[in-house]
Amino acid sequence: MERKVRVRFAPSPTGALHIGGVRTALYNYLFAKKHGGDFLLRIEDTDQTRFVPGAEEYIIEALKWLKIEAVEGVGFGDGPHAPYRQSERKPMYKQYVMQLIEAGYAYYAFDTAEELDGMRERLKASNVDAKYDAITRGTMKNSLTLPEDEVKRRLEAGDAYVVRIKLPRKEEVKFHDEIRGWVSFNTSQMDDKVLYKSDGMPTYHLANVCDDYLMNISHVIRGEEWLPSAPLHVLLYRYLGWEEVMPKFAHLPLLLKPEGNGKLSKRDGDRLGFPVFPLQWQDPNTNEISSGYRESGYLPEAVVNLLAFLGWNPGTAQEIFTMDELAEAFTLDRVSKSGAKFDQNKAKWFNQQYVRMMKNEDLAIILQKVLDEKGLSNKFDAAYVLETARLVKEKISFTKELWDYSNYFFQNPTEFDQAVIQKRWKDNSKQVLSDIKSTIETLESFNHEEVEKAYLTALEKNGVPSKDFLQLFRVCLTGVAGGPPLFEMAALFGKNNTVDRIDYAINTLGK
Known about the structure:
Largest sheet: 3 strands, parallel
Number of domains: 4
Distance between the termini: 87 Å
CATH superfamily of the largest domain: HUPs
Helix content: 40-55%
CATH architecture of the largest domain: 3-Layer(aba) Sandwich
Number of strands: 14
Strand content: 5-15%
CATH topology of the largest domain: Rossmann fold
Strand order of the largest sheet: 1-2-3
């Protein structure tokens, strides 16, 4: 019987969720959705020293904003495998530690921090890798070197200890990665990782393997940075007797800085002016504020589409996908092995596409709120605001740019683009504008076709080619060199306001 797909996203609450982590969550979600499976959110907080207040709530809010919804887990509702915080599952890990110790796959280690530092210094001085492994453990204070009665005495006395996995000295560990194919490590290059501490808290390695087993996780889809830990996890499944139900592994490529020379970091975002977090984050320790995609004006659908393409492609020319379409197209075999360079311009392009797909009515609501804030709401009716939103829609990449690209619809210009004026204003420009104004004043029907005819009639009368005057006329009406279709704008301004704008330009520029 084929196993039901169950995947999890398991971040640690140590700060803001990096956009690379969001991509990991998205790929897990898409994989589960495609296969009719379950997506879980688990919080891996075994390292309480790194816990940051507010981080867990931030993770949940970010996923919900992006509609990456878990069927069970922290913030999404309990299921049969609750609780989903590892700190709340603390009592259950000890039995598995004891199972490993009794089977000879793990051991107690009583070394102090000073003794560990001394061991590392000695090894470094001998140009040997400083690790606690099959060779060095024989020189340290652990249950493999100490007499049994002393081990018992230390445990009964409550001496501090850790439990380490006992790795074979030289054994090949091989497993199949769904993205990278067969991967092989040798235990001679690994160390005896700590699995458990005397305070009863497991380390990530033990906790994540136990939880994945108990939660029936079928696939572990996680970042490339966990690839070196995978052989340890494979051995834990083997040593605990769970190898037959071990999940399949898929290690995702790194998100790289735009130059492609290293992992994308917050510093890269600060340096180049783009967010690396889904939501704005204020560090509770330093009060430093980091920008987020949401607060920077990105639409959640655009962020999802952007992240989907950072390391995966559908094998077609299609670039814009709904979440359902992404789930239908998503397969692990189309995920790249190599890192994916972040492209800020592409991020803006995705957002622009989704802004263009927004209903004009929805954009008008956003624009109306801006007008309310500026005290302009009573001067323009809903139809005017709606048509403005329609006209500027193609020019903006973010909804927060609506005012910047539409302010001259609501305020007559008092300043003009000087570069255009210097280039385009001629000795006869004042006369041409006066003729355009006079022709417009005679119009009984004021629509964009009639405005354009009036404009062309005046230019023909003065022997001026339209291409030489069009940008100057635009600046006279709006103050700026670019924008939506000029004659449609003039029609929206209305006859009287268009005449007023031309008058002001003549009187200001024609002196």
